[in-house]
Amino acid sequence: MTQTKDQYFERTKRNHYWIGGPETQLEISKLRVGVAGLGGMGSGVALALARLGVTRFHLADPDHVDVSNFNRQVIANTETVGLSKVQATVNELRKIDPNIEIQIFSEGITKSSVKDFCHERDVIVDEIDVYPLDAHELLHQEAVAKNLSLYSAYVIGLGIHLYRFSGEQFRFADFIRPVRENSEFTSGLMDTFLRPRPNYLGELGYDGYHAQVKSGAVPIFGPSCLLGHSLVAMRVVLDWLSIRGASLPFEHKLTPVMPSFLVVDPIGMSMNIHTLEG
To answer: pLDDT at position 202, please?
Structure first.
């Protein structure tokens, strides 16, 4: 089934009021996005972007769907267990729009794939698992080299930290300095991502959380991923339109650039901009 231009406008028409009409929707259709990591956050980002009308994707992930993914990953169900996350995501995207342009990188982000992955992209979304820092660094280095903004959202407690890296002022290497400076990897990882640390995490027991992270399984509350991937998709598209000078029907402030980032805490019922020190 081929989707016509009229069908594209029909499937996206509930967005048009908020972006200024069909002409702005055409701008969204031109956006070229690379999504690395197709787990709880990345697969949801890809599908949310497709529903907003994005039609050009590079997708990267070397992993496969398993039962432990069911609580949070939009691609995970009894029919996709054992399927590669790339293919499971492609299948869902094709159900939204058969015409979507997709290039897959089933080996994930590696030295041999990162340049092609970032080639002819406008925006990069980094939702690679937190543990393989080398893959993150490869992706960030290439994004800087190509002058691309890179967005990431991570589940922190039951909330979200939303990061946007752009330019050379503050790089991923600056962000993960606590990991490099700490002799114990898990402690360094937590000192990196748990800035600021939710108050209720102390009430639950920091040591127990530390032990789970050390085991290779960060505790993730499923709905937090839905919150995170929706925020990423919204910020990516609205920032893109604003930067291109689209006439939005409201004032839009660009997502802050690291070391400033958005902290969303549904338990404390707050949304704030936090800036890292040092």
So the answer is: 79
